[in-house]
Amino acid sequence: MSQSVALAPSILSADFCRLGEDIAAVSSAQWLHVDVMDGRFVPNLTIGVPVVESIRKTTGMFLDVHLMIEKPVDMIAAFAKAGADLLTVHLEADMPHGIRGALDVITAHGVKKGVALRPITKAEAILPYLPELDVVLVMTVEPGFGGQKFMESQLDTIRAVRRYIDGCNPACRLEVDGGIAPDTIAAAFEAGADTFVAGSAVFGKADRAAALDTLRGACHGK
Ligand code: DX5
Ligand code: ZN
Hints:
Elements: E1 6-9, H1 19-25, E2 31-37, H2 49-58, E3 62-68, H3 76-82, E4 86-90, H4 97-108, E5 112-117, E6 135-139, H5 155-168, E7 173-177, H6 185-191, E8 195-198, H7 200-203, H8 208-220
The structure holds D-xylitol-5-phosphate and zinc ion (ZN).
């Protein structure tokens, strides 16, 4: 693995009344993770297109938009126009033709492409899509809420996805999402992840820049 480590603070754990300030406080991170939920694919409802448009105006950070929505193909164009740099769709959200269609629309808009795997989905399910992807996102909690416990059982999935990436698309990033904290990030890193979403471990701390440094240190310290 030759990728540098990237941190992606998740604004799901930010204070939405002070979103601009919270985003500014994590600007030392490379990516900003935006969790879009529709109340159907997951039992929670969060951020939509107008919020992504506003975020785009306030930051130059790489906007990593995680779509936890059914039939994502219908919403790709709107999120691309709103300023997403990366759109990640869930493999389980519209299998298999809808996912193929969603990836094609993402490509047509010149946006980077990711596919996410729920914990129940086997690593090999990514193989048909992997050659064209910029990111594989391995969920390390059940998607839907911040602040959940990291699922150690997903380390095997991370290892398997790392082998597949190294074998057929080494430039693809391996992102992990859920329960990433100073005591879990090293295990995910050692298993092969290079990009780490962290919500509560960053926005749950008063000093967000220090929280990001702690995460980087916990990763590189190993
Ligand atoms: C959960 C979201 C995550 C969430 C992570 O479904 O996809 O991005 O914000 O939150 P933490 O880091 O608190 O587990
Ligand atoms: Zn997420």
